[in-house]
Amino acid sequence: MSSNRRVVLIFGGFLTAVAAAFYPIFFYPLAHVEDYKKTQSVNRAGINQADVQPTGVKIWSDPFKSK
């Protein structure tokens, strides 16, 4: 096996491993948004954000949003 082919296989294997690691973290949630929204609504039912949020923390607002 030539040296170039070995380098390509190693690099390709590394990229495949990175893609396989990122799929469940990033791409699966993007493809199944409704499932995650349903889970969030069930998990956050009965929680008042004002009671959970620490006192004195400002809520970030979009500086580019026109008023």
Give structural notes:
With 67 residues, the protein is an all-alpha fold. The chain has a domain at 3-47. Helices cover 66% and strands 0% of the residues. It has 3 helices and no strands. The longest helix is centred in the N-terminal third of the chain and has 29 residues, at 3-31. The radius of gyration is 22 Å and the shape is elongated. The mean pLDDT is 85.
What's the tally of helices? 3
Sheet/helix structural class: mainly alpha
Regions with little confidence, pLDDT below 50 for 5+ residues: none
What order do the SSEs take from the amino end to the carboxyl end, as H and E? HHH
Assembly state (oligomeric) = single chain
User: How confident overall, as mean pLDDT?
Assistant: 85
Give the termini distance in whole angstroms: 64 Å
Beta percentage is: under 5%
Total number of β-strand segments? 0
State the helical fraction.
Answer: 55-70%
Give the overall silhouette. Answer: elongated
Radius of gyration: 22 Å
Q: Major sheet: size, sense and barrel closure? A: none
Set out the fold topology.
Elements: H1 3-31, H2 33-43, H3 49-52
Give a short summary of the structure.
The protein is mainly α and 67 residues long. 66% of the residues lie in helices and 0% in strands.
From the structure above, extract its key features.
single chain, mainly alpha
